[in-house]
Amino acid sequence: QPQRVAVGRAIVRKPSVFLSDEPLSNLDAKLRVQMRAEITKLQQRLRTTTVYVTHDQVEAMTMGHRIAVMSAGKLMQVGTPREVYEQPANVFVAQFIGTPPMNLVKARVTDDGHFLEGPALRLPVPSGLRSATAARAGRAVVVGIRAENLIEPGRSGSSETAPLKIQVEVVEPLGHEVIAFGRLGDDLLAAKLEPHRAPRFGETLELVVELPALHLFDQETEQRLTA
Q1: Cis ω for the linkage preceding 173 (within 30 of 0)
Q2: Does the structure show a pLDDT above 70 at 19?
């Protein structure tokens, strides 16, 4: 109730900008969802510019028209929720935005620029990134794979895929889907699976990587590599 009163007191003053600093951080989960919807409807009705600070990426993704991601006082990236999610500017943004966080694996571009190789990884470079890797042959990179792009064979709509095996360590059933965490060498990767095909602990899970959805970052600067 105090949160609602605070919002109401701000509205009646008819400001040109609303500044909200984590207004929902002390609320329980159910009330957070309700208040998120209320604030969104108010913003749409009042059409008042709102600067909303939050550590909750779900709030940022669902409420924001544009997101500014900050770390240690520095601006990492500004863009629409879709831009920030699909084209993260650096490793920090890639890990911060998305649930579960993006899988990140250290690798090296082969000397011919055609493959990405790590201690337990070997993936062909997707056609859309060959120009980016050709100039970085033999150099260290970070390969990013979203959990929804690491899937069961036969479920991909992409013509460019590559096989990958992980050793299952944790399984999280969420009702509409299952998140499986598995070991690939020293890295723990997350994959989204069908709810009725949950793997068991210790099982070797055969998956495919949707190559066009790969993200590449320079290992030294941690900045995104683009074609």
Answers
A1: no
A2: yes
Distance of CA 32 to the CA centre of its chain: 22
In whole angstroms, give the CA distance from residue 156 to residue 191.
Answer: 13
Q: Please, what's the b/e burial string for 60-80 (b: 16 or more CB within 10 A of its CB; e: otherwise)?
A: bbebbeebebeeeeeebbebe
**How much helix, strand and coil, in percent to the nearest 5, is found in the chain?**
25, 35, 35
The answer to whether the CB of 141 falls within 8 A of the CB of 219 is yes
Sole residue written with tokens 């889907």:
177
The two three-digit tokens of residue 150, written as one number:
């690491």
Amino acid letter, residue 131:
S
User: How much is the average pLDDT of 114-123?
Assistant: 93
Q: Name the β-bridge partners of 178.
A: 173, 193
> Which ranges constitute the DSSP H helices of 13-169?
29-46, 57-63, 81-86, 91-96, 130-134
- Of the candidates 170, 172, 168, 157, the one whose C-alpha atom is nearest the C-alpha of residue 208 is 157
Model pLDDT, residue 104:
97
CA distances from 3 to 26, 40, 53, 167, 210 (A): 10, 14, 15, 46, 44
Residues in contact with 218: Cβ distance below 8 Å, sequence separation at least 6, in sequence order = 136, 139, 140, 141, 142, 225
**What's the rounded Cα separation, in Å, for the pair 76 and 191?**
26
Average pLDDT of the chain to the nearest whole number? 91
